[in-house]
Amino acid sequence: MHVFSTPGIATAPLRAITAPGDSSISDALSADLTQRGFFAAPPAALRRAGCWIAVVTTAIWLQVAWNAGAHVSTILAGIATGALLWVISGVATASSLSAQGREAQQQLKGFREFLARVDAQRLERLAPGAVDDNLAWAIALGVTEGWLANSPRPLVRP
User: Fold this and answer.
1) What pLDDT does residue 1 have?
2) By CB neighbour count within 10 A (0-12 exposed, 13-18 middle, 19+ buried), where does 70 fall?
3) Which residues have CB under 8 Å from 45's CB, separation 6+?
4) How far apart are CA 97 and CA 132, in angstroms?
5) What residues form DSSP beta bridges with 153?
6) How many CB atoms neighbour CB 56 within 10 A?
7) How many CA atoms lie within 13 A of 30 on its CB side?
8) Where are the beta strands (DSSP E) in 6-111?
9) Is the dihedral of CA 87, 89, 26, 97 positive or negative?
């Protein structure tokens, strides 16, 4: 995930920006959202646990298959099972939101949709040089195309 992804704007991965205490912003946000009840468990911890479960399961399977002199198809099945567990752990991590987190996610999606449908009349009512209070949210949620297209005057000075 990048802080900015628009061509021509300097980009930086979110993990490269540090928070107080030298933790990454991503880790700090994850810990804060977990503490506030938006995640059932820290996503990074779930991701690590899922990956370790996949690796350990595959290693045990391969060791047992090797010791038993199993056919190559059994070994390949063990590798496929490990890969499947790895994918499932990623999916489980992505869906680790609590009920409060799912509700907040829906609200944010609705707000993003609202911002994406900005109307020209609303922007025309702004005083010259004024910035709409929601512009920062539009930038953060990546829906500035509609704002730029509907703006009666440039939002950024050349």
Assistant:
1) 45
2) middle
3) none
4) 31
5) none
6) 12
7) 17
8) none
9) positive
Q: Determine the average pLDDT of the residues in 124-138.
A: 75
Q: Where are the domains of the chain?
A: 1-38, 43-97, 98-158
> Tokens in use for 113?
């949709």
Indicate the SS3 state at residue 108.
helix
Q: How far is CA 139 from the centre of its chain?
A: 16
Name the token pair of 99.
């009920």
User: What CA–CA distance (Å, rounded) separates 89 from 43?
Assistant: 10
Report how far residue 63's alpha carbon sits from residue 78's, in angstroms, rounded to the nearest whole number: 10
Matching residue, tokens 């999916």 = 91
- Return phi, psi of residue 18, to 5°: -100, 150
pLDDT the model gives residue 12:
63
Phi-psi region of 111 (alpha: psi -120 to 50; beta: other; left: phi over 0): alpha
| Cα 45 from Cα 82, distance rounded (Å) | 19
